[in-house]
Amino acid sequence: EVQLVESGGGLAQPGGSLRLSCVVSGFTFNNHNMNWVRQAPGKGLEWISYISSGSRTISYADSVKGRFTVSRDNAKNSMYLQMNSLRAEDTAVYYCAREVTFSLKGNDYWGQGTLVTVSA
Amino acid sequence: QSALTQPPSASGSPGQSVTISCTGTSSDVGGYNSVSWYQQHPGKAPKFIIYEVNKRPSGVPDRFSGSKSGNTASLTVSGLQADDEADYYCSSFAGGNKEVFGTGTKVTVL
Predict the structure, then answer these.
(1) If you write DSSP's letter for every residue of A72-101 in order, what string do you get?
(2) b/e string for B51-87 if b means 16 or more Cβ within 10 A?
(3) B42 in contact with A at a CB cutoff of 8 Å?
(4) A108–B48 CB contact, under 8 Å
(5) What are the pLDDT digits (tens) for A70-114?
(6) What's the CA gap between A54 and B107, in Å, rounded?
(7) How far apart are the C-alpha atoms of A109 and A105, rounded to whole Å?
(8) Any chain A CB within 8 A of the CB of B89?
(9) Where residue B16 falls among pLDDT bands split at 50, 70, 90?
């Protein structure tokens, strides 16, 4: 069974940092590109970061570029999101998502999400 | 990158059909046959229901169908059922390994 489990969310102060983790199981992690997607309370989905299967290619949304860093450790079946210089508008549920291998884009499996709250 | 535009809401009676639009630009929806659709029930993670404009992943009923014309993609849910009541999001490849999501549409089954 494919599983993605996020952790590391919580309360952070404006300007602070958090590191999210996404641990996967049930599939060959190093065959898949991965994404982070967030959803602010009551709002829509927002793609924020992509990392290729071998970490060679990384992309960010403009809203987080320069503040967030995505990485992965294929030996540990894990992906990470280091979030620095947090702002109130970063408050959201953060999902990790597995990209399909059979199409250009599309995320076929998602974690349950981890809530990040940025507040003083 | 601006979000793709979806109507905030759509509704239909059980058994009827509802169609949701998703409008982007030639840099995303219009430029690639890489539009996906997701269904999200309250408090749950999104579920992948359409990829490459009109293809269904295994296990997704054929009541869900997709299409595209120019810069606008559409999702049609036929034979509406109570469990189809959810939020629906489109997404598109936007170049440079980036993707952009739609603003979301709340579907109500009357």
Answers:
(1) EEGGGTEEEEEE-S--GGG-EEEEEEEEPS
(2) bbbbebbeebeeebbbebeebbbbbebbebeeebbbb
(3) no
(4) yes
(5) 999 999 999 999 999 999 999 999 999 999 988 778 999 999 999
(6) 39
(7) 13
(8) yes
(9) very high
